[in-house]
Amino acid sequence: MVLLACTGLSAQSITLTGKVSDSLQNPLDVANVVAVNQKDQALEAFGITNPQGEYKINLKANNSYKIKFSYLGFAPKEFTITTNTEDIILNVTMLEATQNLDEVEVTYEIPITIKGDTLVYNTDSFVSGTEKKLADVLEKLPGVEVNDDGEIEVEGKRVSKVMVEGEDFFDGDSKLASKNIPANALDKVEVLRNYSEVSQLKGVTNNQDNIALNIKLKEGKKKFWFGEITAGGGADERYVVHPKLFYYSPKYSVSVLTDLNNVGELPFTSRDYWNFTGGFRGGTQQNTGTSFTTSGGGLGLSLLQNNRAKEINTKFGAVNFSYKPSNSWRLSGFGIYSYSNTLLETVATRQFISSGQMEQTTTSADQRSKLGLIKLNSSFNPSSNFQWEYDALLRLSNENEDTNTLSVADVTDEIQEVQDQQPYTLTQNSNMYYTLNLKHIFALEIESQTGEEDPFYEAIRDQQPFAGTIPFDAGQSNFDINQAQRVKTNRIDAKLDYFWVTGAKSNLNFTLGTTQSSQDFDSRIFQILDGGGELEFEEAELGNDVRFDFSDLFAGLHLKLIAGKFTINPGFFVHQYRATNRQLGTSVTDELTNVVPDLFINWQWKQSESLRLNYRVTRNFSDINSFAQGLIFNNYNALYSGNRDLESALYHNVSLNFFSFNMFNLQNIFANASYSRRIDAFKSSTAIRGINQVNTTINSNLEDETLSGTGSFQRTFGKIKVSTRATVFWSNTFNIINDQAQNSRSLTQDYTASLGSSFRKAPNLEIGYRYNINNYENGAIESTFYTDRPFVKFDASFLNGFIFLADYDYFNYRDKAGTIENEYGFLNASLSYQKPDSHWEFSLNGTNLTNNTDLNQDSFNDLFFRTSQYLVQPRYIYFKIKYDL
């Protein structure tokens, strides 16, 4: 269908080409060319000149057009042409204007405008009317993508901030914006490249990887409440409720999001919760040459695959606000609450490499999760020379999981597991930025973190685990094993930067900083007896009472130099480390002085083309969990014991990134390659017998390597967009299994190609193909898995108010050995009707219309290969009513 549409379009169109120059015949780069059909005054086509001033647009034959040329600082020009079947050449000379571009733009909307580092898309120039949310609009903008997780990417880089009318929208996440902001409220999307939260530091720091989005609303949506209220239901007590309200004005803004459903829609996942950064302005823990993360081991809850499960029940609510008490003071924040009850069922096979043992498991899990986030921000900016930012982010959660597992290996065992925890973390930062004069800038950033984790684990099983290691009472009817843990963390990071601007294109950056952390960890393993009593174990190795202190004092020096088209930023940090762990009545202290260099080079040979090199050496430290020597249950067949003599590891990382965005033909290319080498790396040392294992962490001179690469090509030919993407990841690692070094290699390849249309008055179709290869090699065992995944997306607007949407994904999963093969597909569709100028929309929706029952996944580590079959929700058909406010 798409090919026939392309053929028909080509047969009825001609090409308008030419060159746009100034009065001295110098070419004008990124000048806008717009063609307006004289018959219906609709925007027919647009183009942007390349660095040679050349443009090219396709027009329909035998039509009359008004061709409009505009360029920042120049008077616009208009021509009227009538096409026949011959191509047309139109060269234009533009003269400097006395009026600015804003006065010109009110006469017509330019699809794409470039203003320095800002790219402005007029959304009405790209949409077809079938779009529902911001994500649907963004996917039609050249150079903008929404990945499988709902996160927004521009130029292959993740968008770090989304704003609406200049106000933060749930700062620290882009998924909530892409999935919730109504498409019909959008006027323009501004892509802010090289974005800096602090304007004073924009010229002295590197922001090439920082991209923000600002959403401009239609005039009717400003200073008025807008949004939508959606409710629906279906058979088997299925329901959906989605009220969403928004208000934006120069003084304050409010956004309210809610989502209650049991049809498998996930507005907020545990992964979203832990990845939610809160949008902290400072970088006290970033790029200092040290990697030290204070986080507990957590529960290790079962993860959803492709955001699907056997049953999902979700309740979600969120509020975002901003308020300006004065022109120099701004308050903002958000609150998020998410509840989910998830049922998971998995059938899996694990092949243990060292022992050759096969284990087959059937697992059912009941997960209940309550997640909360509260963020407050105060920004005080009385002048262009001073800025003070304060942020506080509170994380609260209550998670538990009940699991029943039937394990069949050399023996058969029924295992009931319970996991529970209620952790919290409070993170605060205070940042001050002061410009003394044009040559001297100061930045002070302080961040504190306090938190507590209390993971609890219980396993009830028929077979005695780890006989000879833990003296369980074998005279009981079963083995009721319990483990309580508690981790308390207090940490502070501080960094003072002084920027000395030595010239128009150079500056020096002097840094002083510190990290001070203190952690306490206690744990105990005990057995619940038949009478309800507890059997406590006195052995020291079955409990923990540990104190871990970490100190890092550092100083750094960096030079930033702009030489022609190159930006060069070399530097180094000098660190003085001290780490002490106290346990078992003694203490062990490790002290180290270390110098770590880094280098950043950016070659910007065009405004929209660059090549970046980034090299960094990082000293990596583990937190208290890796030092506590007492045994800890990771799961029913795995114990972990820390290593109090563990030292740091050294990581070398180098990456190369290429980006090209050609506005002339709407071609977008990006590629990146990254190589990492770990010296004295942390290694897992495992003693394994059958399927039971005891793990610890050691340092080893066996070096690990990883190499990854990603490339993407996207180009628009008239109304057809062609996209390709390739991702390759290779790793070569060593670990210790039963006192023997074991080499593990993996190679993952993922390729995607698609072809899609963007017609305004005709149905649109996207067809694509995704191919995935996972190759795992460990010892004498090698496994290769393949997944073919063709996909189709279709949308159509018809009969003055009807919209039909459908997407289909087909999976063919198999292994090279021919022992596994499974085919399945997922089809989702909706048919909606909204009478023109009506607030009401009625829709019929279907998910998993093919009624597929399960999907497959494979994984690999140094101990085993794992393949699994994972049950998912069946077909649901439900009716929805939506009211637009």
Automatic annotation (TrEMBL):
SUPFAM superfamilies: Carboxypeptidase regulatory domain-like (SSF49464), Porins (SSF56935)
Pfam families in UniProt: CarbopepD_reg_2
Keywords: Receptor
Protein name per the record: TonB-dependent receptor
